[in-house]
Design a protein that fits this description.
Blueprint lengths: L2 E4 L5 H13 L5 H6 L1 H4 L5 H4 L2 E5 L5 E10 L2 E9 L8 H16 L3 E6 L4 H6 L3 E2 L13 E5 L6 H7 L4 E4 L2 H5 L12 H6 L10 E5 L6 H11 L5 E3 L9 H6 L2 H8 L5 E3 L4 H7 L13 H13 L11 E3 L3 H13 L4 E4 L9 E4 L1 H7 L2 H6 L7 E4 L14 E8 L5 E12 L2 E7 L6 H21 L3 E9 L5 E7 L4 H16 L4 E9 L6 H18 L2 E6 L9 E8 L2 H17 L15
Parallel strand pairs: 4-5, 8-9, 8-11, 9-10
Antiparallel strand pairs: 1-2, 2-3, 3-4, 5-7, 6-7, 12-15, 13-14, 13-15, 16-17, 16-19, 17-18, 18-21, 19-20, 21-23, 22-23
Length: 597
């Protein structure tokens, strides 16, 4: 195992030799190397003055050297060199991340890097942003200047787990099973795929507890991409039953491991079995605002107090039965109004259907529409039209994320833009500038008010508030989710990458990236490694989020992608989707489209 330590003055001559070998690796001739020998020399008094550290292996062999120079608020990466025989082994990555961490401790907010052109790809992959290159003489190598913005872990992320590591419990199926709702999959098969998101319930896990087996190559790649070490994985604990917390309690040794280390135990959502496992009393009605009708009533009470001019609440009615819902739908159709039909506890858009008058007529009437929907209680809601007037083709679906800590304090995390098609959630993007300026203030103000109300009601844990934008530049709240969500996963990864690579990451989670073929595990590992490499060349980060969908008859992946700009983010997502779909070519001719010519 390679570790970083402070360099010693007595090592100065040996370190100079390492630097010269590393520089010469790029093919520079003897004349050039002689010309820069004095500049590259490390003297014994440089070791402390230039804050030099080394990376060494378990045998004490020095594999790399780096320096952090300058003073706050602007610091410099004075040097970073790796022994040629150790290139490609993660030594440079380890040293760079150490420099960025020490820059935070120094109070620096800018880290300047003048890179050899051969190393530019490395710094781009590490998240540094290229700026103007410094000048040089005719005989000089034109260095490439990069900058990074060192930042500590976000305040909300430190408050979420106390600033340390946590144990993550992927109890998605267990959470969903609490709600007797016909729109939720009884077998919870999708829930077990989404349990893979347990890898990202906080910025730095100590252990993952998962219901189904997951590929070892997946966890290794995720750890490498996010700079995690020492993450324990306990998977394959369930066959069909959704009770993950009870499955852990049934294994006393495992229960002692995950609860006895004094680390926070973070679930997807709170349940009575989780309360027993965590030693946390279950409060009756704790999740009452997970109900869409109860959330609607909560929104109405908040708005009745005033102070939220940018928020409008759509009207909602509880149908006394299926035929009552049909009568309401028919009346709204005759009035030329579109309608949203909702279940009380649908997940990810399941149980939510947007019905236009045209759709009702095409189906043969309101009763025919309802016959095609899952059984169960229905809410009838006014459809909020868009797009946003005066805001261009701005986002239609937004969300606010926050959490209530155990002391009852509500914390703001931020806003995100969701990708929603026909009422179904497909992903989300978080990061600086994602939420348009016109929406940011009302979204945060109302989301904060909901957080305070949830805290007063006794709720503790993560929550979000979903919104749609109307045609007049206002936001309409549609539901609360009293659990972690896809956007929350993106926020966790953004917090980790900002601390690891510099501030300002945009992170996108895409729930389903279609694969061109069902892949064996080894080929899935190869594909994900190739995608990580391809995104790094663009300056982006690829993280496979849900690998187990790749083994379904119609295969897919859930993915996370991060970058410092929207252009790079979009390019990386396009690359991922194209390469994922193209994997079918490795296993034979493409599927027939069913068309003839």
């Amino acid at each position: 195992m390679v570790k970083v330590r402070a360099a010693r003055p007595a090592e100065a001559e040996d370190l100079t030799g390492l630097v010269m070998r590393s520089k010469a690796h790029w093919g520079y001739d003897a004349v050039f190397m002689a010309a820069c020998a004095q500049e590259l020399r490390i003297r014994s008094d440089d070791v402390t003055a230039r804050r030099i550290v080394v990376a060494e292996n378990e045998r004490g062999e020095v594999l790399g050297v780096a320096s952090l120079e300058g003073t706050a608020p602007r610091a410099e990466l004075g040097m970073l060199f790796v022994e040629p025989s150790a290139l490609g082994q993660g030594v440079g990555r380890l040293l760079y991340r150490d420099v960025l961490r020490r820059a935070v401790e120094l109070g620096a907010r800018r880290l300047v890097i003048d890179s050899d052109p051969h190393a530019a790809g490395f710094y781009r992959a590490m998240g540094a942003v290229a700026v103007t290159a410094p000048g040089g003489g005719a005989d000089a190598v034109a260095l490439v200047r990069f900058e990074a913005a060192p930042v500590p872990l976000a305040d909300w992320a430190r408050a979420w787990t106390g600033g340390g590591r946590a144990v993550h419990l992927g109890n998605v199926g267990e959470f969903n099973a609490q709600f007797a709702d016909a729109t939720l999959d009884r077998e919870q098969r999708p829930a077990h795929h989404y349990a893979c998101l347990a890898a990202f319930y906080s910025p730095y896990p100590a252990a993952l507890v998962l219901p189904r087996p997951v590929p070892r190559g997946w966890t290794e790649l995720v750890c490498r991409q996010l700079g995690w070490t020492g993450v324990e994985v306990y998977d394959g604990l369930l066959d069909t039953d959704p009770g993950l917390a009870d499955a852990v309690r049934a294994r006393p040794a495992l229960a002692a491991q995950v609860t006895g280390a004094g680390l926070p135990l973070v679930p997807w959502g709170r349940t009575r079995p989780f309360g027993r496992l965590a030693g946390r009393p279950w409060q009756p009605g704790e999740l009452r605002y997970e109900s869409k009708s109860a959330a609607h009533e909560l929104f109405g009470r908040i708005l009745a107090d005033g102070g939220h001019p940018g928020i409008v609440l759509p009207r909602q009615w509880r149908a006394g039965g299926r035929w009552a819902a049909a009568r309401m739908l028919a009346a709204r159709t005759r009035a030329g109004e579109s309608t949203v039909l909702k279940s009380e506890h649908g997940v990810g858009g399941s149980g939510t259907t947007v019905v236009t008058p045209e759709r009702v007529r095409a189906a043969g009437g309101a009763r025919a529409v309802l016959r095609r929907l899952p059984r169960g209680p229905l809410l009838v809601e006014e459809y909020v039209g868009g797009p946003v007037s005066g805001a261009g083709e701005g986002p239609r679906d937004l969300t606010y994320d926050g959490f209530v800590d155990d002391a009852g304090r509500a914390h703001e995390v931020g806003g995100a833009v969701m990708d929603v098609a026909d009422g179904c959630y497909r992903g989300a993007t978080v990061g600086p500038g994602v939420v348009p300026a016109w929406a940011e203030k009302p979204l945060v103000s109302f989301g904060t008010a909901v957080g305070r109300a949830l805290a007063d009601s006794g709720y503790r844990g993560w929550f979000d508030v979903d919104f749609v934008a109307d045609g007049e530049g206002r936001l309409a709240p549609t539901e609360t989710n009293l659990r972690l969500t896809g956007p929350s996963i993106a926020f966790m990864v953004a917090a980790r990458l900002d601390a690891l690579r510099g501030a300002g990451h945009l992170v996108r989670i895409a729930d389903r990236v279609e694969l061109g073929a069902r892949l064996p595990e080894a080929q899935l590992d190869e594909l994900c490694t190739a995608l990580a490499r391809g995104c790094a060349e663009l300056g982006a980060v690829f993280v496979p989020a849900i690998p187990t969908g790749a083994f379904e008859p119609v295969p897919w992946l859930g993915v996370l992608v991060a970058a410092h700009s929207r252009e790079v983010l979009d390019a990386a997502e396009a690359l991922i989707r194209a390469k994922a779909l193209a994997v079918g070519a490795m296993f034979g001719p493409p599927r027939s489209s069913g068309r003839s010519s």
